[in-house]
Structure formats: C-alpha cells, structure tokens
Write a structure and sequence with these properties.
Blueprint (H helix, E strand, L loop, with lengths): L2 E5 L12 H7 L3 E5 L16 H11 L4 E6 L3 H10 L4 E7 L10 H7 L10 E2 L5 E3 L2 H9 L6 H8 L3 E2 L18 E6 L7 H8 L7 E4 L5 H4 L1 H13 L1
Parallel strand pairs: 1-2, 1-3, 3-4, 4-8, 8-9
Antiparallel strand pairs: 5-6, 6-7
Helix pairs in contact: 1-9, 2-3
GO molecular function, one term: methyl indole-3-acetate esterase activity
Organism: Lutimaribacter saemankumensis
Pfam families: Abhydrolase_6
C-alpha cells in the first residue's frame, strides 16, 4: 500500500484531515498531515511566512517517498516541493487546488477564473501581509455541505493566511516532469470556481481527473469517498 502526505490549503492546518487519515488507514495505507509554517500548531508569524518555507516544510516531512496531496492553495507548495525533491514524490494529487501555471502567482491565477467568490470575504490585516475570513461567512464559503459542528471546529483552528505565498510564481522545470499528477474537482465549490478547475485540467487524460459532488471541503463533507478516490489513484 501507499504512504500519503496531506497538505492543507489557505488558513487551514493538519487538523482538517482528521477524518480522512483513519479512512486511508482502514484501506491499508499510511497517512499523515503537517502544519505548514504559520498554520495549526506552527507558531511562525504570518508576516514571516513564505512559499519557499511552505515547500521546505513539505520536503522535510518526506522521510520516505510518498503520494503528496495538496488542497486548494496547497497546490503551489506541493508543486514546488516536487521541483526540489522529485525523488521523494511518487505522485501529486491536487484536491480542488491550484495547479501552478508558469510565470503566474496563485493570486494571478485566481483572477483568471470567470469569477472570484472568495475575494468579497477576504479581510486584510492592518499590515496587509495576511488575511482572514469572517466567521459568519465560513459556512457558505467553505463548509455548507459539511456535518453539523464543522464550522465551530474550523473557527477554533483557522489562522491568518499570509499573502506572500500567493504572490510569487512557481518555476516548473524538467526536474519534476516525470512525477505523475492527478486532480480531484469539486463540482459545488464556492471558493475555486468549478469551471476554473475544469480549465486547469482540460488537457489532462480523462482517467487522471475525478469529480466529486461536493463543495470546497471534501475532507469534512465526504471523507470516506475522498479516501476511496485517493486509494484508486494510488493503485494506478
């Protein structure tokens, strides 16, 4: 079976994978999640957080080769990690995530989408180096199809999201060209438009892309279904 490393998205942490890890374990895999710098239990000030630091954290967590899953914003650091240590990455799986385009930062990619559902909810910190989302907006934006209690749990754990990691591009070279890539689209996503998820993967082989009938947080909404898809991707 396979070894999975699970990487969260913006403002989240390893905590968001709590329901997926036991499902993967039940399928015979090993799986663990980490807090990127400035997230979860990592106390790096958001003003010091960088995309380079994110990628370093992913590489450092790869004690053995693994399938690396990145959610949402996590698509950028997992791609950069594969560039830096391709021998440690067996596969990249993008979960309703941004797949970096040459020369474009995540913020620039966001503006390429046909609409930007997240932008009206962003509240910048006074120093403009981070942002948050009001608690009142969490349900409709991230968790509207998730079990009761999800918003309360998330609100206790969400952090300030640093702006620097979303302001710089990832240079993609031949170093990671051989690393297999898969994508999981979320058809009811209210954060990254589903149409843009199609655009990012429109030239991928059909069997490299799966669509889930859920919103932006399948790790809470459908953890067993998500684990089954990861399992199938791992089997090749």
């Amino acid at each position: 079976m396979s070894n999975f490393l699970l990487i969260h998205g913006a403002a989240h942490g390893a905590w968001c994978w709590r329901d997926v890890i036991p499902e993967l374990t039940a399928l015979g895999h090993t799986a663990h999640a980490i807090d990127l710098p400035g997230h979860g239990q990592d106390k790096t000030p958001y003003s010091e957080v960088t995309l380079d630091g994110y990628a370093d954290a992913v590489v450092d967590a790869l004690d053995a080769p693994a399938i690396v899953v990145g959610h949402s914003m996590g698509g950028y650091p997992i791609t950069l990690a594969a560039e830096r240590a391709p021998e440690k990455v067996q596969m990249l799986i993008y979960l309703c995530a941004y797949v970096p385009k040459p020369g474009l930062s995540l913020s620039q990619m966001r503006m390429e989408a046909p609409y930007q559902p997240l932008l009206p909810h962003i509240r910048m910190t006074e120093d403009k180096k981070g942002w948050t989302v009001p608690r009142a907006d969490l349900h409709d934006l991230f968790y509207h199809d998730c079990p009761p209690g999800t918003v309360d749990y998330a609100a206790e754990n969400l952090c300030v999201q640093a702006t620097q990691p979303t302001s710089v591009p990832v240079e993609i070279t031949d170093r990671s060209a051989h690393v297999p890539r898969r994508y999981i689209r979320c058809a009811d996503d209210r954060t990254i438009p589903p149409e843009y998820q199609v655009t990012m993967t429109q030239d991928w082989p059909a069997d490299h892309v799966v669509t889930m009938d859920c919103a932006h947080s399948p790790f809470f909404a459908k953890p067993r279904d998500l684990a089954a898809i990861l399992h199938d991707f791992a089997k090749g």
